[in-house]
Amino acid sequence: MGRTGNSFGTIGELVVGGEHHRIHRLAGLAPPDLPYSLRIVLENVLRHEDGDRVDAAQVEALLAWGDEESFGRAVDLHPARTFLHDTNGVPTVVDLAAMRRAVADLGGDPAAVNPRIPSELVVDHSVIVDVFGTPDAAARNVEHEYARNAERYRLLKWAQQSLDDFAVVPPGTGIMHQVNVENLSRVVFEQDGWAFPDVCLGTDSHTTMANGLGVLAWGIGGIEAEAVMLGESLSMLLPRVVGFELTGALPAGTTATDLVLTVTELLRGHGVVGKFVEFHGRGVAALPLADRLTISNMAPEFGATCAYFPIDEETIRYLDFTGRDRRRVDLVEAYAREQGLWHDPSARLRYTEELTLDLATVVPSLAGPRRPQDRVPLTAARDGFRDALPATLSGTGRPGAAGDAPVTLALPRGEAEITHGAVAIAAITSCTNTSNPAVMVAAGLLARNAVARGLRSKPWVKTSLSPGSRVVTDYLDAAGLTAPLEALGFHLAGYGCMTCIGASGPLVEEVTRAVDEHDLAVVSVLSGNRNFDGRINPDVRMNYLASPPLVVAYALAGTMDLDLVTEPLGYDPAGRPVLLADLWPRPQEIASVIEATLDPDSFRRVYADVFGGDERWRGVPAPAGPVFPWDEASTYLREPPYFHGMSLEPEGVADVRGARVLVWLGDSVTTDHISPAGAIPVHTAAGRHLTALGVPRRELNTYASRRGNHEVMMRGCFANVRLRNRLVPGVEGGSTRDATTGEVATVFDAAANYRAAGIPTVVVAGREYGTGSSRDWAAKGPALLGVRAVLAQSFERIHRSNLIGMGVVPLQFLDGDSADSLGLTGQEEIDVLGLAAIGGGTAPRTVTVRAGEREFEVLLRLDTAREAEYVRHGGILPFVVRQVLQRDLQPV
User: Fold this and answer.
1) Would 360 be classed as within a structural domain?
2) Are residues 756 and 864 in the same domain?
3) Counting beta carbons within 10 angstroms of the beta carbon of residue 883, is it exposed (0 to 12), middle (13 to 18) or buried (19 or more)?
4) Taking CA 50 as the corner, what is the angle to CA 877 and CA 185, rounded to the nearest 5 degrees?
5) Which of 88, 646, 758, 785 has CA 20 to 30 A from 615's CA?
6) Proportion of the chain in helix, strand, coil states, percent, rounded to 5
């Protein structure tokens, strides 16, 4: 809980059901027009006021929030809990294990490195769609999962046993965010006699999904998560808050997916990076809680820190519906009403910017082929595909167009012809949509109607169902919808992110061969949240986000080069055309199925032993002891080098001199481009490294699964197969020009040559650098390669923080400046002058960059004093180790 100064006299009492809870009462202190989300921040600061880290000035800054001056003030936020998944969680535990070793080496007690707040990890990112379209697909995929991840799971079992306040939700339970909203989210915490809001910071950017439940939550990446787990606060600038008013109601035939793609387009266009978005207005009451969760889940796609829905009657109904204890539900309602956190649709709050959306204007939509904000109405999807195809094919060296000569495939069901736009993957996946019973039931009903008309998925389509919770398969079974989904190939493939995270597995073999031999631009259609280049599958160049029922429809059609609104999906056995409208279920039918098959007991049964796991998980062996025993022969887990040679006191910060540009990138470069998550191709630097160690080609696995091995991840840095580096124009993939040799080389090899020569490196980029997942290795990788600074026109919030967390300095071109406008070529030697001041405890607003004969100023994006402190220490991790030693340990 922390100490409290109570200098504002806000400590009071709340009695609920005869139980007494201490609270920091906001009534009489918080301005009545303060946004709901900032009231939660205000309570947090009040509760942790100690006169040292959190002082009265931070409370006063919140009370005065709203003018330009206030947006430059920082406050310290203390989360109630941290939330992790295995992809970021494994490297987080690796770092904690390395910290324990470092503390022991520096004379301290390693057990002092331990979470100080509840920390929960869900294993959901490791299962791959290796097997699909068969009744045993899920069982076989899980078998592969345990075989591939045995070492990682032993590490997690060690952490579960050795760390206090660290709990693991085992594989096969569900996707982390769906598990979070259906079970783990408290909404209001109880601890040591206090009641306070559930502030959750997670290692995945989609932690924001809990915003739909009234939880203030967002992603911070694994690096910052380690710090807050160990008791550090999160230093943050007071954000601008964008009010998003909802009016009206969704029309029949549209889904929550259509709504969220519309919201994503609007907010990305408006510009909300680093801002809170808060939904309000009478239209909020018209949105089921599951629809709110879908919108909040996509906050990273429109760039916001969070997408908050205040608590109301629908929140309480959902808590009841998902089987929460009645005592907990009563506390949530009483606390929200007492603290001014209960939604008042008529309230006019003080927002820095405001937008409005009439829900009645939403139309069926997709997003693609490369970004979630690129919404395309379903009526224009075919034409949008045709328009995007030439640019897609330009990178293949074989330009073409829709309608090119088809390629004949010899498939088990007979010969078939495909051309550009063939749907290679149709995946019902991701917590974004599988958490929403309405769209899942709609997919099942559409499948039932299609089977009744004699339709089947096209044989070249890889179909899969990977929901975020066992509750989903339970209600599909109860509704009799599992059988028709399976008849179309949508067999359960596993409970996890799978296709959405890039764990899509190989395509139908004949399709892969056609892509390789004919440079076909095939597509995926998935009900996920990300469709960035190279993310879903390296053989798929165009990716579209769609609702689950549309995923089924495109599996039937087999191509994007079709107008689903006016052209038939197929023909029944009598030769009659079958249109999408013939199959689309009625809203009343969807509602009646949900009412008949879902109740609170469904959720109670599934989550009765959420941390226990099955026999396979319970049988995973784990080493004992406070210090993890590293295996030097492991290709999955290696002790990272962050603390090698670390001193008790930080060293100074030096200016960058004589640096070379490692990579020169364009706009909207994502963390997937910087640090891929998908399969490790054998021809890449990482693939060659592993095969040289004796790893069979079939067991290379994914970058996501090997994030506990820095040797692999360094080689995977800037290795996305779709990365375009302006230093090597016309080339896709992880290549660059090595100034030490003048030759084209892999980024890893060039970086190794620079390090050997003592030459620092920098990255140059355009706008929105680091868009996407809160991927820690997108910062760790460059840091280990020797990158000292990134010069970009703008940064995505989480990635900028992660760079700082690794001691890499984010530099932002002044407004109107860019690498092009300043005449840079990427061949210059680069100096960054003025950084040395950071070592003395100050962070200048601007520093000087000298690139060849040119000299210009750039913003030093260290936005708070704490961020400058992290850079002074060489990153968050050494900072935290030194704090642990100073705070908790006596030298031996």
Assistant:
1) no
2) yes
3) middle
4) 65
5) 88
6) 40, 20, 45
Asked whether residue 601 is assigned to any structural domain, the reply reads: no
The span from the CA of 445 to the CA of 313, in Å, is 29
* Residues 879, 888 contacting (CB under 8 angstroms): no
Domain at 819, CATH number: 3.20.19.10
- In this prediction, residues 105-134 reach a mean pLDDT of 92
| Pick from 28-37, 134-143, 144-153, 688-697: least confident | 144-153
Virtual torsion, Cα 630, 636, 639, 640, nearest 10 deg: 180
Least confident residue range of 302-311, 449-458, 490-499, 701-710: 701-710
Domain extent, residue 46, equals 11-77
Element (H, E) at 597: helix 587-597
Scanning the structure block, which residue is given the tokens 């709050």? 349
- Is a pLDDT exceeding 60 seen at residue 892? no
Secondary element (H or E) of residue 615: helix 615-618
Distance of CA 877 to the CA centre of its chain: 22
Is residue 715 helix, strand or coil? helix
Residue 732, number of CB atoms within 10 A of its CB: 16
Percent of the chain with pLDDT over 70: 98
What average pLDDT does range 294-304 have in this prediction?
94
Q: Examine residue 502 and state whether it is found in any structural domain, yes or no.
A: yes
Residues 109 and 217 in one domain: yes
- 278 falls within a domain: no
> Any idea which residue has 């530099």 for tokens?
811
Are 42 and 171 contained in the same domain?
A: no
Instruction: Kindly indicate the confidence band of residue 661, based on its pLDDT and cuts at 50, 70 and 90.
Output: very high
Q: For Cα atoms 373, 377, 379, give the angle at the middle one, nearest 5 degrees.
A: 155
SS3 category, 254? coil
In Å, how far are 540, 544, 774, 815 from 369, measured between CA atoms?
A: 10, 5, 22, 30
Given this model, what pLDDT does residue 126 score?
85
Residue 647 and residue 28: Cα distance in Å, rounded? 49
For residue 501, give the DSSP letter: G
Helix (H, G, I), strand (E, B), or coil: what is residue 373? coil
CA 709/CA 675 separation, integer angstroms? 13
Question: Mind listing the pLDDT tens digit for each residue in 510-535?
Answer: 999 999 999 999 999 999 988 888 78
Whether 751 and 719 have beta carbons less than 8 Å apart is answered as no
- 440 with 514, same domain? yes
CA distance 551 to 446: 10
The domain total for the chain is 5
Helices 437-452 & 470-478, crossing angle to 10 degrees?
A: 40
- Predicted confidence at residue 339, as pLDDT, reads 98
Q: Is the dihedral of CA 287, 291, 296, 299 positive or negative?
A: negative
Residue 875's φ and ψ, nearest 5 degrees, are 125, 170
Q: What is the pLDDT of residue 395?
A: 59
- Distance, in Å, from the CA atom of 331 to the CA atom of 355, rounded to the nearest integer, reads 32
The reply to whether 441 and 559 lie within a common domain is yes
Q: Is the pLDDT of residue 889 over 60?
A: no
Residues 417 and 388 in one domain: yes
What is d(CA 275, CA 270) in angstroms, rounded to the nearest whole number? 11
Beta-strand runs (E) in 714-853: 735-738, 743-746, 761-764, 787-792, 809-813, 830-833, 846-851
Q: Quick one: average pLDDT of 172-201?
A: 96
Q: Which residues pair with 846 in a beta bridge?
A: 859
Mean pLDDT score, 5-29 = 95
Together in a domain, 773 and 846: yes
Who's near 866: CB < 8 A, 6+ residues apart? Answer: 74, 76, 235
Question: Distance between CA atoms of 764 and 782, rounded to whole angstroms?
Answer: 12
Reply yes or no on whether the pLDDT at 890 is more than 70: no
Q: What distance in Å separates the CA atoms of residue 865 and residue 437, rounded to the nearest whole number? A: 45
Same domain, 222 and 104: yes
